[in-house]
Amino acid sequence: MRWLAPLPLALLLALLPAPATAQRVQSTYFNSIIPSRVDHLIGFTPTTFAIHPAGQRVVPIAVRVGGRRYRFVFDNAAAVVGPSAKLYLRNMLRARRFPSPQGIFLDRRLKRSERRHLRVRADLGRDADVLVAARSHPACATGVSRAAARGIARGSIRTWAAAGVPAPAGGNAIALRRAGSGVERFVEPRFGAGVELPRGARAATDGGLAEAASGDLAVAGVTSWSRARAFQASTCAVPVGGRAPNDANVRSLRHPDAYPISFVTLARLRSVLPIATAFVSYLKGPRATDSFRQRGMLPPKGPWPSVPGPGDGGPGTPAS
Fold first, then answer.
1. Gap between the terminal Cα atoms of the chain
2. Which residues belong to CATH 3.40.190.10 in the chain?
């Protein structure tokens, strides 16, 4: 869980320019929810410390709503990380008659029933759940069924033979690696598996990519395409249900395990609409966009981050 204290308002306002003709600057707050599956791509971007970096001149975010110009300083912008958005979406919908400045970084499409009361304010990126193995692993050729991928991620399938894959040289046992910090034994929920680290598995920030890239044939890594695409020379994204992810089918969301990353608020925000508009303006602006890109976000439009090839000293090959 992440919850950041605000910068002192007096310090922020002291740094603001104050020409006599300027619109009054308003201090405000915003709360963001980040599902753990996309936390590595969002990070601290929606917090005060990223919106108004310490040591830099504080620049209010100006927007025009309903013919009126507003200028906001987010002296209290905080984010909390949860296993999924489900509970937070439900709470936000229940309180929709009295909206507050808050939004959710959603890692799925809105359901039809949700679109009545919720709105995507920013389409931020694409990603996918990926099962990875060493490039020479038999699973790279055979693939696994969707049920087997879920069983591996849950830890209920513990051998390659049980997953329908010929045992690789060195043994039949699966060494499961789940992406996440492993703090309190929590990991990213992928392939329908929950956030609890299965018995016998290990958490790894990259989801086991480095171990698989070293040639360890026991490793089955459960991670994201945003991480795995840089390791394509030394690992493979195992085909699941007959389909392997690539840049094209993840970007278009045609791959079954691909998902959009968007920022969602209530559709009707009433008096807090100017605040939300300013926050979304920041998310779409260069400061937040650069932060997302540096963390590996794969944007819905424009070029994706290049993938280093072996000649560049990197572990991957250019993605198609």
1. 36
2. 9-127+258-294, 128-244
User: Could you tell me the CA-to-CA distances from 132 to 237, 239, 258 in Å, in that order?
Assistant: 5, 9, 15
- Reported as a single tens digit per residue, the pLDDT across 184-216 is 899 999 999 999 999 999 999 999 999 999 999
From CA 113, how far away is CA 5, in angstroms rounded?
35
Tell me the average pLDDT of the chain.
90
DSSP 225-269: HHHHGGGTTTEEE--BTTB---HHHHHTT-STTEEEEEEEEES--
- pLDDT tens per residue across span 222-266: 999 999 999 999 999 999 999 999 999 999 999 999 999 999 999
CATH code for the part of the protein at 128-244 = 3.40.190.10
Q: Show Cβ contacts of residue 145 under 8 Å, excluding neighbours closer than 6 positions.
A: 164, 240, 241
pLDDT tops 90 at residue 20: no
Residue type at 56 in one-letter notation: Q
Joined together, the tokens standing for residue 117 give 């009361």
- Whether the per-residue pLDDT at 273 is higher than 90: the answer is yes
Distance in angstroms (rounded) separating the CA atoms of residues 163 and 140: 13
Q: Which two tokens stand for residue 156?
A: 């209920």
How many angstroms separate the CA atoms of 259 and 248, rounded?
13
Q: What's the DSSP call for residue 180?
A: S
> Is 261:125 a contact under the CB 8 Å cutoff?
yes
Q: What is the CATH topology of the domain spanning 9-127+258-294?
A: D-Maltodextrin-Binding Protein; domain 2 (3.40.190)
**For residue 112, what pLDDT band results from cuts at 50, 70 and 90?**
very high
